[in-house]
Design brief:
- By secondary structure, this protein is an all-beta fold.
- It is 0% helix and 55% strand.
- Strands 1-3-8-5-6 form a five-stranded mixed sheet, with no helix packed on it. Strands 19-26-21-24-23 form a five-stranded antiparallel sheet, with no helix packed on it. Strands 27-29-34-31-32 form a five-stranded mixed sheet, with no helix packed on it.
- The radius of gyration is 33 Å and the shape is flat.
- The N and C termini lie far apart (90 Å).
Length: 529
């Protein structure tokens, strides 16, 4: 078979279509997508003539068996030399390789351990690529199909930025070492696994273009110090720092020129398998709302993983910047009141520790701006926020469910104001509920009421809540804040009744609210033993 050049890669959607069983040896006449049937326990061979340096991308997928993909060089007297053997996870396998010499090659397909068979689809791309050195300009030409193929040596954790002239700035894609397209952010691509990659550029047929493949500059953020840098248009700074779950960071960038930025979790080693996220898992980063205006960019984030984080800064014009990163939280205690001053358009943070079963109130007041008060738990989740009635006050009442470090954020409505303020944090003592003693109180419209009692492991209790004014909604939480039982079908006629065998010794919390109405009620704890 005469050697042929295939300058254009062909990408066709993979659609499995049943076909009749075929011979195990087939001629591969160029690039394309091919459907076939693998006879169980057999080996399929796709034969082609290849040129030295020609890039071959092969991808096999099947819904009926686990495919193994091989590439062999045909030798004398059928003495085949195996160049690649690929068994990717799942129902597919793929490879990308530049052929070492001219000659006959075979793509071989069989089932894992030769057990199984069925329909499969094979997609093959073939092209000649030129060498591209990272950081060195290149003058290239598009072929008759408007494509240009280049190969480069990628280094793990490298971030690359292709810059093009003579065609659209976004008319490119980067393929990883297995020929898979890589996702990009703002025209940059992070190399997750080292090896030979490909850059495919599109443009007008037979026209020239200029290309520079830049590499992002890797920097380390000094702890507690200001950091300054400058960038030319198209350059990227990657500023890294270490973090732990629950740590709080505010990053501020004072800049001249136009920058595109992002803050991300970027571990040096990624797990081979990502488990399914479960309820209660920390997010990698929880961003808190802070304003960025003019020449100042801000990120406020509670970190959710241990390891490396990165602030990436890409220059759209020549730019310079100064970066600071710190935890600006001011420690605060229950029963204390603090005076502060809010920078115009800024935010101030206060931190305190709290435990399950604590009920507290935070009150913010100012005559200079309309205050907005937010409360975050240790994971960075927003668990409370004041209204914006415009009366110069902000209030939050919160019952603690999860132990940890909590944060209050002081800001102004619309992030447009600033000035002096006062903030008070007060713990409210819960009403004590005694066995076989009826408690009474009044539930305000839209409010939540709380009671507490001491329980012992294995103790059985009944909890009764009655009201002629509203329909009670009642729940009971354990000493560590876990909701054990709830009842929301109470009525003004029957009230609400719960029964539970207590799982541990400690203080339990009763939450009482209303699905309709408000007013007086009675609550009673009955010993069921």
């Amino acid at each position: 078979m005469n050697a042929k050049m295939w300058p254009m890669a062909v990408a066709i959607a993979l659609v499995s279509c049943p076909v009749l069983a075929q011979e195990s040896v087939r001629d591969l006449r160029g690039a394309g997508q091919f459907g076939a049937f693998l006879t169980p326990s057999q080996l399929d061979r796709w034969v082609f003539d290849g040129e030295k340096g020609e890039t071959i991308i092969a991808h096999v997928v099947s819904r009926e068996f686990d495919p193994i993909l091989e590439l062999v060089k045909t030798g004398a007297k059928d003495d085949d030399k195996v160049l690649l053997e690929v068994d990717d996870p799942g129902n597919e396998s793929r490879f990308m390789i530049r052929l070492p010499e001219k000659g006959q090659y075979k793509i071989r397909i069989h089932a894992f351990k030769y057990q199984g068979g069925g329909n499969y689809n094979l997609t093959v791309q073939r092209f000649q690529a030129k060498e591209l050195a990272v950081g060195k300009p290149l003058l290239g030409n598009f072929d008759r199909e408007g494509k240009s193929y280049l190969y480069f040596q990628g280094v793990k954790d490298q971030i690359l930025i292709p810059q093009l002239k003579g065609t659209s700035s976004g008319a490119w894609k980067i393929l990883d070492f297995k020929g898979r397209p890589m996702m990009d952010w703002a025209g940059t691509v992070q190399i997750e696994d080292g090896g030979e990659g490909c850059l495919v550029v599109s443009g007008q047929p037979d026209q020239r273009y200029d290309l520079l493949l830049r590499e992002g500059r890797q920097l380390t953020l000094p702890v507690g110090k200001e950091f300054a840098s400058s960038l030319q248009q198209g350059e990227l700074d990657v500023v890294s720092f270490q973090g732990k779950p629950g740590e709080f960071r505010v990053l501020e960038v004072e800049k001249k020129g136009d920058l595109v930025t992002r803050l991300k979790y970027a571990p040096l080693e990624k797990k081979s398998e990502q488990r399914i996220a479960r309820s209660g898992d920390r997010p990698e980063i929880e961003f808190l709302p802070v304003a960025s205006r003019g020449n100042r960019l801000r990120y406020a984030a509670i970190l959710g993983r241990e390891g490396r984080y990165q602030l990436q800064l890409l220059a759209e014009t020549p730019a310079s910047y100064t970066l600071t990163a710190r935890d600006p939280s001011v420690p605060m205690e229950f029963g204390k009141e603090v005076e502060g001053s809010l920078p115009v358009g800024g935010a101030t943070f206060y931190s305190f520790k709290a435990a399950p079963g604590q009920l507290f109130q935070a009150n913010l007041g100012s005559q200079k701006f309309i205050p907005v008060l937010r409360l975050y738990d240790a994971h960075g989740s927003l668990v409370g926020m004041s209204g914006n009635d415009g009366d110069g006050e902000g209030h939050i009442t919160h019952m603690v469910v999860n132990e940890g470090m909590y944060r209050l954020q002081v800001s102004s409505l619309g992030d447009g104001g600033g000035g002096d303020f006062h903030l008070a944090l007060k713990e409210t003592k819960l009403k004590e509920l005694q066995l076989d003693v009826r408690g009474q109180n009044t539930l305000q419209p839209g409010a939540m009421d709380f009671w507490t009692f001491a329980g012992k492991e294995g103790q059985t209790v009944f909890l009764s809540v009655r009201s002629t004014s509203f329909e009670p909604v009642v729940s009971l939480r354990s000493p560590d804040g876990v909701q054990l039982v709830a009842e929301n079908k109470g009525s003004a006629t029957t009230g609400s009744l719960l029964a539970l065998k207590l799982p541990k010794t400690g203080r339990y919390t009763v939450w009482i609210s209303s699905s309709r109405g408000a007013g007086k009620y009675t609550v009673r704890l009955i010993d069921g033993d």
